[in-house]
Design brief:
two-stranded antiparallel sheet, binds cytidine-5'-triphosphate, Methane Monooxygenase Hydroxylase, Chain G, domain 1, Beta Polymerase, domain 2, 423 residues, alpha+beta, 52% helix
């Protein structure tokens, strides 16, 4: 691993970002503040991995420093005075500035109470040794590594290790973070840390639904979330979220198919559907409640996915008509159908679901309301009935051209206006 951290920092970032880091260090120095790159960015620098988010901790008033930085040309800064943090955007990089702090937890799962502190105290409040290193960026000390907990050694040994035995009781979301880093980096949980996870699993009960949901969404933003789910199942973390949640051997294939088919934002929604697919409705209710997912897009999608799962047997027909497929599926959203296509074990059903998604759902009649008026059908319910029958015929391949549609429409109108029909 390289030892020249000045060069490491210089080579890791585009010139404007590096320049800003230098300038921030100089300004901080003038205010007698210590300034440090901290956490993920240091971990990723030492691992030679790219990171777009840079956390900088200030031994001093972060907002005052941000106000000075804001006077530099081409710098966009947003300060959150209430939280004492500021965010800068340079190129595609996001730089967060905050004051070094020490934290104490009044009870497990509570958000910590915070006091300003120095960098040593700030590092002590962190989750894992590999996330508890800092690189000084003050002039004269630029590139000096502070590594009180041997994070660098753990990077070399590929270990995820907590700083102290109460880390998960302080904040049980770290259990979910530990698995995420382990799988992302292909590391291993250090033996004692793994035992602490088993010991402190119940602490997850003290975490709010919003925080749990955020961690699951972070799992799903990783390159291969299925690896995380596998490990979370092994460590009984999935079951802690909902007793019916389990790893499924098909996840390897279905998750990778999601990545091929969907853009990242919709992939996250589909991953949720795959995760809940084996639940029954009451288990789903319980999980959505636990994760504080109520009434929004994701709630709706998960529920529709299970509702459709319970209807799939209707599609298990060799001779089913295309119009029947259409009318069975038309009230389900495409992602709910996509999720079922990914999860069903039946080749036939998958083929029908994909036929709907790729083709049938786009089917439209060439005739429209104006054509109906031209054909003498008065505005009203009848127009809908005729057009719907024409659409059915079109879906089933019985009409192709506009002339076919018109001929069919006329015969339907004739039948409907034949008084004998209504007897
Ligand atoms: N952190 C922590 N405990 C948490 C959350 C965060 O100690 N529950 C600390 C860690 O030191 C972490 C830093 O805050 O490195 C920033 O958190 P975050 O942005 O979530 O993670 P990154 O380390 O930046 O890693 P990544 O975004 O790559 O997951």
């Amino acid at each position: 691993m390289p030892q020249n951290y000045f060069k490491l920092i210089k080579d890791a970032f585009p010139e404007p970002v590096f320049r800003l880091i230098i300038q921030a260090g100089e300004l901080a120095h003038g205010m007698s503040y210590g300034l440090y790159l901290v956490g993920g960015v240091v971990r990723d620098l030492l691992l030679d991995r790219k990171s777009d988010d840079i956390d900088i901790m200030v031994e001093g008033d972060a907002i005052k420093l941000a106000d000075l930085l804001a006077q530099l040309p081409n710098t966009r800064i947003t300060s959150y005075r209430k939280f004492g943090t500021s965010t800068l955007k340079v190129d595609d990089f996001r730089i967060d500035l905050a004051t070094c702090r020490r934290e104490t937890y009044s009870r497990p799962g509570a958000l910590p109470s915070v006091k300003s502190g120095d960098i040593t105290e700030d590092l002590f409040r962190r989750d894992f040794t590999i996330n508890a290193m800092s690189l000084c960026i003050n002039p004269g000390k630029f590139g000096e590594l502070i590594d009180i907990y041997n994070g660098k050694q753990d990077l070399e040994k590929k270990l995820i290790r907590v700083l102290h035995s109460e880390s998960f009781t302080d904040d049980a979301t770290r259990i979910m973070r530990a698995i995420r880093y382990e799988q992302r980096l292909n590391f291993k949980l250090e033996t004692k840390t793994e035992k602490l996870i088993a010991r402190d699993l119940d602490m997850l009960d003290s975490i709010s639904g919003d925080r749990l949901r955020k961690e699951i969404s972070l799992w799903f933003s990783e390159l291969q979330p299925e690896k995380i789910l596998h490990r979370a199942d092994e460590l009984a973390v999935l079951q802690k979220l909902q007793t019916g949640l389990h790893w499924n051997d098909h996840f390897n294939e279905t998750f990778s198919r999601v990545r091929k088919q969907a853009k990242p934002a919709s992939a996250v929604q589909l991953y949720y559907c795959l995760l809940v697919y084996s639940l029954n409705e009451s288990e789903l209710d319980e999980l959505l409640g636990r994760l504080n997912i109520h009434g929004g897009k994701l709630d709706n999608l998960c529920r529709l996915t299970l509702k459709l799962k319970n209807k799939l047997a209707l599609l298990d027909e060799k001779e089913i008509k295309r119009a029947d497929i259409y009318y069975l599926l038309k009230d389900f959203s495409p992602p709910a159908i996509r999720a079922n296509a990914l999860c069903t074990g039946s080749h036939r059903i998958r083929t029908y679901l994909e036929l709907y998604l790729d083709n049938l759902r786009f089917t439209k009649t060439l005739l429209n309301g104006r054509d109906m008026a031209r054909m003498g059908v008065p505005e009203g319910r009848l127009v809908g009935i005729v057009l719907q029958d024409v659409l059915k015929a079109k879906l089933n391949g019985e009409v192709k051209t506009k002339m076919d549609e018109e001929r069919l429409a006329r015969s339907i109108i004739r039948k409907l206006s034949d008084p004998g029909m209504h007897q």
